[in-house]
Each structure stands twice: as structure tokens, then as C-alpha cells.
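Notes to self, Major facilitator superfamily (MFS) profile domain-containing protein:
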Amino acid sequence: MIDLLSQLVPAKLKHFGSGEVGHSISTHIFSFVSNDKTNRFVLFFKMSSDQPFFMYTVSFLSAIGGFLFGYDTGIVSGAMVLIRKQLDLDDVWQELIVSITIGMAWIFSSIAGFFTDRYGRRPVILLASAIFTAGSVVMAFAMEKWSLLIGRAIVGVGIGLASMVVPMYIAEVAPDELRGSLVMINNCFVTGGQFIASVIAGILSYFDHDLAWR
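result:
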């Protein structure tokens, strides 16, 4: 009977999520209970005492991508007031610099599923973080409109990947009883990033306009 149950456990775990999640769950196998009259086999999953803390930590770190999503889409509204004067942008260029981030995010969010299926959730999240960093560096050192446009496009790629992968990853690693609250963390980080961006833009507007937007 024990051999039969041990063969059934992997099959029972397949519907719980991806390979990464299924592997983590499979570490909590089953319990064998016996008494004098009969033997009973109880299959259950045990959550360790530090499991909720681990889940919240993973969700918090993953949701930083959501924060960057909100920040990068929100900060441009305040920065553009200063950028337009310094780089002498006309209406067309201003619209391009603002909209190219959302356009690239739309394109890469539509193909993010292919990358996550092929390479896994965590590698794509790490890639999105690296892309965010690269785009921010390009924008910070942009001296003319073309380099600024390229930086905004790079950030849009990171936004597109993160907006699809982060909620998916959090939902897959979260247990049923915590899934709703953990996925909500990403949504809160998106709106929180937009709020922080507005506050920072307002504060920096009192500093040197040639450097504050960077």
C-alpha cells in the first residue's frame, strides 16, 4: 500500500502549478497512521511554520517589478515638463517619448508567455529587472532625444515582461489560503509606484531643472 501511495503522490501534485511549485510541494509527502485494528493512510500536505513568511518575502521581492511598472509609467508626467524645455521637444517627440514605453510594454506582454514557458518564471523576472536597470541608466545619461527615446523603449520591454510574469509567479507559488492577498501585493506596488513617482517629481521640481529630471 505504501508503494502504491508513493507512486500516486507525484500524479496528485501535477495540477498544483508549474514544475517549480510542484517540486516544492512534493517535499511534503504524506503521513502514515496506524493503530492496533487497522492501517490508515492519510495523504496531506504540511506547511512549515515559516512558510507564510517565505511566501510573503517571495511575493514582496517579485512585486518590485510591479513597483517599477508604476514608477516608470508615472514619473514621465512630471519629468516631461522639464525634459521638453531642455531637449526642445515638439509635440510629436513628446508624444513618442511618453507613448513608446506603453507600446513596447504591450508588445512584450503579449509574448512574455512564450519566454516563461521556455525558460521559467524566475529567469524572466530577473531578465525584466536587468532590463529596467539598463533602461534607467540610458535615460539618466541621455543627452538628446534619440537616446532618451531608446531608454524609454528599453524600460517598456521590462514593464511588459514584469506585468505578465510577476502576477503569474506569485499566484503559482502561493497556497490557496494566501493567494488572493499575495497577488494583491503586486497591484498595490503598481499604484504605489505611481504615487511615489508623483511625490518625487513634485519634490525634484524645486531643484535644478537641467538635472532634476534625470
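- The radius of gyration is 23 Å.
- The CA atoms of residues 121 and 169 lie 6 Å apart.
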